[in-house]
Amino acid sequence: MTIDELTQIKATALAELAAAKTPDEVEALRIKYLGAKNGLLPALMKQLKDVPPADKPQMGKELNALRTAVTDALQAAKDASSSAGEAVEPFDFSLPGNWTKAGAMHPVSSVIEETTRIFAQLGFTVADGPDMETEFNNFDALNTAKHHPSRDERDTFWLADGNLLRTQTSPVQIRAMLATKPPVRIINPGRCYRRDTTDATHAANFHQIEGLYVDVKPVSLADLKSTLAHFAREMMGPNVKVRFRPHFFPFTEPSVEVDFSCHLCHGKGCRVCKQSGWIEIAGAGIVDTRVFKHIGYPEDCYGFAFGMGVERIAMIKHGITDLRHLYTNDLRYLKQFV
Ligand code: DAH
Asked: Phi then psi for 290, rounded to 5 degrees?
């Protein structure tokens, strides 16, 4: 072993390490040069004892320097090879981000949620009922005459077993009263079904929100009006006006139809309110005592009830002129209301 040989070994080792690309190649060189069993440098170290004593210090120093140089070069080669796969590519920070799309509520759902929130503040709880109803709950108990046109096959989806797809959320009034004693204060959002031909304001499947308040103390039309006026202001803003028009429903006496002033034109007349300045939102009234009788409820009760069209509210709130837009699920359209 001579100094020249060591210089030669060093040059070769550094050249090989500089050329090593993969972690495997680097590891092979580590074994070749530093491996404890057959590595070149440990073998040279062992030969040091045979070097003449006069040359030993010099040779020892050279050997140590060689080992340090090879060890450092190995480490450098190792670092370079492990990051080689993930070569740093120039990154364009102006590229659009990779967003996770957040979902948003459908206008119909947000009207339902907002309505239940407003009525919850007044002490109403949410009741539920099935889409498939009995004839008793949907018609008989609600005092609907046997030959009332709404029972007709052309209006109602009858099922083979004599049940039907509920035409209104009003049967939930019956379910709620049968389940609890007065006072009853419930709100029920749900789907309804009618054999209607779909057009800009009608759909065979739509949503209503039913409300019922029954108590053992007198409940008047003024209570109904103030409740619905409060709801209207919360839902549409403080300037909305509410109007009651006399009407007929089999299960309320007196009965009214409830209009809100048009949210878009503030009563001036526009496309959405068909120039009238008003939009029909709900049917309502004082619960007819015959309804209490039909279900064996105490007849000295008093109550008011109402049923509102959810799509109607969504349409005036957002200025939607065709109800079908709510159900074609074109995100470009629905996103406007988020
Ligand atoms: N169920 C009626 C309809 O679909 C709306 C309605 C009217 C509900 C009067 C009521 C009510 O609770 O009292 O046309």
From this structure: -65, -25
268 CA → ligand 1 middle, Å? 28
**How far is 232 from 226, CA to CA, in rounded Å?**
10
Instruction: Classify burial at 235, counting beta carbons within 10 Å of its beta carbon; exposed 0-12, middle 13-18, buried 19 or more.
Output: buried
- Ligand 1 centroid vs 146 CA: distance in angstroms? 18
Q: Which residues contact 153 (CB under 8 A, 6 or more apart)?
A: 195
Across 281-295, average pLDDT? 96
Domain ranges of the chain: 3-83, 107-337
Mean pLDDT along residues 26-40: 88
Burial class, 221, CB count within 10 angstroms (exposed 0-12 / middle 13-18 / buried 19+):
middle
Phi then psi for residue 48, to 5 deg, are: -60, -30
130: preceding bond cis by omega (within 30 degrees): no
In tens, the pLDDT along 155-166 reads 999 999 999 999
CATH number at 107-337: 3.30.930.10
Task: Name every protein residue with a CB atom under 6 angstroms from any ligand 1 atom.
Answer: 168, 170, 210, 249, 252, 283-285, 305-307
